[in-house]
Amino acid sequence: MSTHDWPHDPDGEEGSEGRRKYGHAVLVKKIDEEDDFPLRAGDYADEFGDHPVRLDADTVVSVADIFAGIDDDAEYDDIVAFHKAVGAAMREQGYWTYEGADAFVR
Which stretches does the entry tag as region Disordered (predicted)? Predict the structure, then answer.
């Protein structure tokens, strides 16, 4: 667990909803799909940069940490484009923890 002084509890209703939401789900819940697109990465990071994002049961990072790998001037026309860019940045930075259902089949 991070010792960062978050603006709200990473596991509260503003964060990961009691550890029910992780990674992308935490990031996307900050967006209104009808009103917020097109969305500029730098604007999103400026508004939510100090917010916590739970990546897994033990790891919390800031939105700014994730968006450090994304160009501030990148613009997304819809939620799908946002997901793809954020997912790519998370993978590049080692923040991606889910490898698909096949990884859990024995």
Answer: 1-21
Residue 14 lies in a domain: no
Cis peptide leading into residue 52 (ω within 30°): no
Check residue 7 and give its pLDDT: 92
Has residue 62 been placed in a domain? yes
Domain enclosing residue 82, as ranges = 24-97
Say whether 3 sits in a helix, a strand or coil. coil
Give the C-alpha separation, 59 to 1, whole Å.
Answer: 6
Number of domains in the chain: 1
Q: What is the pLDDT of residues 56-80, one digit of tens each?
A: 888 999 999 999 989 999 999 999 9
Q: 11 φ, ψ to 5°?
A: -110, 10
Q: Which residue's structure tokens are 């930075």?
A: 93
End-to-end alpha-carbon separation of the chain, Å? 29
